[in-house]
Amino acid sequence: MAVAAERRWAIVVGIIIFVLVLMMIVTGIHWSAMPPSRVETIDPRTLHVSGEFVEANLGTTLTAEGKVVVRLVAQQYSFEPPCIVVPAGMPVTFRGTATDVVHGFVVGTTNANVMLIPGFVATFTTTFPKTGEHLMPCHEYCGTGHETMWGRVQVLPSEEFMAKAKRGERLNCVRR
Ligand code: CUA
To answer: CA-to-CA distance for 89 and 59, rounded, in angstroms?
Structure first.
């Protein structure tokens, strides 16, 4: 009786292990057959000196085609810029990277959530439906100051945002 029960459980555990190993093999083959569509690399040692992520280029910009692009850099233990302005109801493209270790951020309770890895540019596009202010904490443990690493995102009505952008005002909300 006990032997039969033992055997039944051995079979169940065997099946579970088999299924898990099968999942690893299938996903491994899937990912090697279909690598991620885009991987963008950047040299973290020179990104502050030249190129897209120099300080003057960080923050929110309205491109000539009318797209809203936010560029930001994460480092121990802050985001640059620490306060970001975006319009409500318009697609916003984030482009971010890290200079030292792996960081990440999430914007309030929205679906904006990304990892920032030194050497890589992370990009995603999202739309903030409502105006208001969100906290933007770093959500990857990055060292002893991790829990003090926060930014803010201010979502403005799109008319107000566009008016600011057209006047050529700096699109950020950093208190000075
Ligand atoms: Cu940066 Cu945690």
So the answer is: 19
User: 73 in ligand 1 pocket by Cβ < 6 Å?
Assistant: no
Å from CA of 117 to ligand 1 middle: 11
Q: Which of 130, 134, 135 is nearest to 158 (CA)?
A: 130
Strand ranges of the sheet holding 83-87, from the earlier edge strand across to the other edge = 83-87, 150-156, 132-137
Q: Count CB-CB contacts under 10 A for residue 134.
A: 20
Q: Where are the beta strands (DSSP E) in 52-172?
A: 59-62, 68-75, 78-80, 83-87, 91-98, 103-106, 113-116, 122-127, 132-137, 150-156
What's the pTM value of the predicted model, to 2 decimals?
Answer: 0.77
| Pocket of ligand 1 contains residue 85 by CB under 6 Å | no
pLDDT digits (tens, 9 = 90+) for 47-68: 888 888 998 889 999 888 889 9
Residue 103 Cβ inside 6 Å of ligand 1? The answer reads yes
